[in-house]
Amino acid sequence: MIVQSHPLLSILFFALSFKTLRVFLRTHSFTLPPKQVEGNRTKSWRWTNLSVSLVHSAITGPWALLCVYNSPEMLTEIFTFQSSFSYLLVCVSTGYFIQDVADIVMNGQSRASWEFLVHHVLVISTFLYIVLTHHYVAGAVVALFVEVNSIFLHTRLLLKLANAQTSQLYHYNKYINVFTYIVFRLSSQFYLTWFMMKNVSVLPNAGYINLSLNLMNVMILVYFYRLIRTDFLRKPKHYLQNGNNNTKFVDD
């Protein structure tokens, strides 16, 4: 398979593919930002960036689930198992994260979205190790279960940009978002952490992967707290007034 024999070129191709998608979404009328976002350069950029992220999640989340459905042994053979289908998934996702870092930096959003950059650097460094060594491919696939939740997480942020926090869609999405956050983000992340800590003394480079996992564990717990606080503990009027006024890439 050409992807496995030329992984770096393949990742570059997928990064350019997501960049092309970003240009398409930015220039075609049916994907342009709503009126609440038009006229504001930062919000317009965020709309396009989140739209690309939503496409990535809609592709890779179900793809990761399908990989494990076809080969359930991936859940226990974290280090050794791989298939062409799962390896391709990791390459596609690595390309997306590289493109997203470039998009954030080149559009001057590094300070506002430094948390995303830290997360992406951790993912990219780990995924590059995986695609170059062909180790932990199954672990990367399980880690990509989080993209199922990201579908609803990105939808939530797009609705906030459109100032639609009181809509029925936002109301239903916030419950699905919390449910998938627990099932697909927290559970998969903690399962991988448990597996790596259990086998840290016998698996190669398990220490670094453990470090990356634990750093991301802290981040996703902080995000989860912010999510609950904003969507369930605050009154809607509060975040309608404040939700779109700061320059941070991802508001609460």
UniProtKB/TrEMBL annotation:
* GO terms, biological process: membrane assembly; phospholipid homeostasis; plasma membrane organization; regulation of membrane lipid distribution
Q: Which UniProt keywords apply?
A: Membrane, Transmembrane, Transmembrane helix
Q: Which residues form the TLC domain?
A: 42-236
What topology in the membrane does the UniProt record assign?
Multi-pass membrane protein
Q: Where are the transmembrane segments?
A: 136-154, 175-196, 208-228
GO terms for cellular component: plasma membrane
Among the Pfam families in the record, one is TRAM_LAG1_CLN8
Q: Which PROSITE patterns match?
A: TLC
Q: Any idea where this protein resides?
A: Membrane
Q: PANTHER family in the record, alphabetically?
A: CT120 PROTEIN (PTHR13439), TLC DOMAIN-CONTAINING PROTEIN 1 (PTHR13439:SF5)
The identity of this protein, by name, is TLC domain-containing protein
- State the organism of origin: Scyliorhinus torazame (Cloudy catshark)
